[in-house]
Specification:
Length: 81
């Protein structure tokens, strides 16, 4: 799978700090993924990274998104690590 520029930017952001799930209401599916260094929510891009295996939720905290080994390999191949 090819990683888009938006996905690559999201991986770079999360290289040093995880993105966090922010709930907008009490409903389980009413949330967005945010990163303190991003101007907008990362939700659509992060969901694509989840489905491609480049990112996952942290096993310790399901409200944190982290990079997988596959995501780190993409960053290394692009020379951004």
């Amino acid at each position: 799978m090819t990683v888009s520029e938006a996905q690559l930017r999201t991986l770079r952001l999360r290289q040093n700090k995880a993105a966090r799930r922010v709930y907008r209401s009490g409903r389980a599916g009413d949330y967005s993924w945010k990163h303190e260094d991003a101007l907008t929510a990362l939700t659509p891009t992060l969901h694509k990274l989840f489905s491609s295996g480049h990112a996952t939720v942290s096993p310790e905290n399901r409200d944190m998104a982290v990079i997988t080994h596959k995501g780190r390999a993409v960053l290394a191949a692009r020379g951004t690590c």
